[in-house]
Structure formats: structure tokens, C-alpha cells
Amino acid sequence: MLQSLLNGLMCYKPDDPIEYLESCLQKVKELGGPEKVKWDTFVSPEKKTLPPLNGGQSRRSFFRNVMPDNSNFPYRRYDRLPPIQQFSIESDTDLSETAELIEEYDVFDPARPRPKIILVIGGPGSGKGTQSLKIAERYGFNYISVGELLRKKIHSTSSNRKWSLIAKIITTGELAPQETTITEIKQRLMQIPDEEGIVIDGFPRDVAQAISFEDQICTPDLVVFLACSSQRLKERLLKRAEQQGRPDDNLKATQRRLMNFKQNAVPLVKYFQEKGLIITFDADRDEEEVFFDISSAVDNKLFANKEAAAGSNELDCSLIMDSGDTVYTEFDFEDQEEDQSSFSGYESTGDFSEDLRKSNIIFVVG
């Protein structure tokens, strides 16, 4: 009991300790003696009435002032606030598809030679599709149009909320979501693992897409950039809209796509220039002239140490001779022996062989 009394004195520190002790002893009698006293008998908190809110203002009057009873007031006291409207293509659980989650996997078999990858980029209407098809046909490569890939996906999944939204985005001239586009490209590439080469038309559209492509797929072997004037692009887009009626060739979308291209083209070209991967061509010319330059560049860039990529290795004589001409397999070397005397001056010098080894030799035949 003495310990309990001391605890009470230390806890409350009363101004009149004698009076406090007398009240504690009286409580001991009420409890039935010292054996009923516990260590915290005199330190137990007593229930006290809290002071009123707002300096004497009652709870009812407080809410009456803050939330008036006017029927025109938009939110009543117990009304739930309206939800915040949020929507995300990539994070909305209602739109997620397991097959489209970005996973860490190899698109190409590491144990096999990777196909050559050529990216063809340029403004809308620059002739990317035409030139890409020509490149694929010449070298026997597979052709992938990223725009067509997305349009087919939208058409086949028209009831899907995610792709319905992507369709609206593309129709307004904006770029499709980056990860969605990369996923579609990866899935398409994995369907054609045995190709020697692949031409991808219309990708990437900006530097972010280029970096994502390199991180998740591979570094391209060559990037073909078709440079075309804005006026020529507009003319071609209007003509294509009349002929094909593509939904993304409407006037508003065309203007937006041209604006996006102008904003993204320069940094994208510089990005590939720093890597030494891009070759630029004037696409304002006739498509056959453009393709001639492209094929020459591809030959030099990708097939410099090999036979010609297209056509047979044997020369078709009918291409250079008229019918009735004879193909000669033996030659008269008498004139050549006379011509060799012109080199006698060089043979007398000891530096001829050394100079010859240092020289670039070009044969011109016809």
C-alpha cells in the first residue's frame, strides 16, 4: 500500500499532499482494506469530459457553419466525393494482357547468326513503304511495316479497350505507345527466326524508340533515312488519302504527323549518325533513282566482302550481246606482248613492286 501511495504522489504531485493521502486512505477503506490495493490503484486515470470544440462551439453547430444546410450546396455532410478520373494504357488492370507484358527474353537465338536488320525511316509520305519493299525484294529479306502491323492488330481486336484507345491515338496523328509497339515488333520477329535479313519500315519515330529497340532487340545494321521536303510530303499524303483512304491520312492527323516528324527527325538522325549507322537519301526524286542509290549503299555497307547480293553469279551474255554473236573463249595475246614493252621502264626500277603493293587497283570492264 505504501508503494501505491508513493506512486500516486509522484504521478499527481498534489498541492496539498496531506489531503491527497487522506483521500487515498478513504479509498482503501472503500476497497475493503490494504490487501485490495494494487501498485497503480492511485495512478489510474480518471475519466474527464473533454473541452468543447472551437472554444465552446458544439459539434453540431461546428458542422452547421462549415457544411451549411442549403440544398444548393454541392456536397452534403455525409456525401462521398466523386472519384478522380484516371486512365492509363499500360497500368490499368482492365486493359492488361499477360501476353503483352515486356519480358526479358532474346528475340534471336544466340546460337545462330542474327539476321541483318535494316531500318527505313522518313517523314509520312516519303516513300518508306515503297523503298522498303524494293530493298526486301532485291536482297531476299523479310519486310515488316510497323504501321500496318498496328493497323492489323487494331482491326483484329476492335472490341479491346486498349486497342480502341490506340486506334484513336493513331487516327489523331500521335505515336502509338512505345512499349506496345516494341512488343508487336518483337512478337513478329520471333515468328520469322530463319530470315537472312529483315527490313523494318517506319520505325523508330523518335530517339526513345531507337534506344528501346536496341535495348530489347538489337542494334540495326543499317538505317536508311529518306529526306523529303514538307511540300512534297503534303502532296503525297493528299494523293494517298484519295487512293487508299487510310484513317490516319485525314487533314488534322496529317498536320500532326508532320509536326511530330519535324520535332523528332533531327535528334533521331543525329543519334544514328553518332553510331555510324545511317545513310541519308534525297527522296524528292523518282523512286527508281532513289532505289538505285539505296541499293548501291546497301551493297557497300552490308555486302562489301561478298558476292553481289542479288542475281546470279554467272553473267547472262544475252544482256550485252546481240543474237548471232560468238562468245570467244580464246584470245590472241600477240598484241598484248607488244604492249607489255611499255612497262619495261618500270621493270628496271626496283621500286615498282613496292609501289604496286601500295596502290589501289581498279579494273574497268565492259
Automatic annotation (TrEMBL):
Record EC number: 2.7.4.3
Catalytic activity field: a 2'-deoxyribonucleoside 5'-diphosphate + ATP = a 2'-deoxyribonucleoside 5'-triphosphate + ADP; AMP + ATP = 2 ADP; a ribonucleoside 5'-diphosphate + ATP = a ribonucleoside 5'-triphosphate + ADP
Molecular function terms, GO-annotated: AMP kinase activity; ATP binding; nucleoside diphosphate kinase activity
Annotated source species: Chlamydotis macqueenii (Macqueen's bustard)
Protein family: Belongs to the adenylate kinase family.
PANTHER family, per database record: NUCLEOTIDE KINASE (PTHR23359)
InterPro entries xrefs: Adenylat/UMP-CMP_kin, Adenylat_kinase_CS, P-loop_NTPase
The keyword Transferase is annotated on this UniProt entry: yes
Function field: Nucleoside monophosphate (NMP) kinase that catalyzes the reversible transfer of the terminal phosphate group between nucleoside triphosphates and monophosphates. Active on AMP and dAMP with ATP as a donor. When GTP is used as phosphate donor, the enzyme phosphorylates AMP, CMP, and to a small extent dCMP. Also displays broad nucleoside diphosphate kinase activity.
Keywords tagged on the record: ATP-binding, Cytoplasm, Kinase, Nucleotide-binding, Transferase
Domain of life according to the entry: Eukaryota
Official protein name in the record: Adenylate kinase isoenzyme 5
GO cellular component term, pick one: cytoplasm
Record field: transmembrane: none
Tagged with keyword Nucleotide-binding: yes
Subcellular location: Cytoplasm
Pfam family, one: ADK
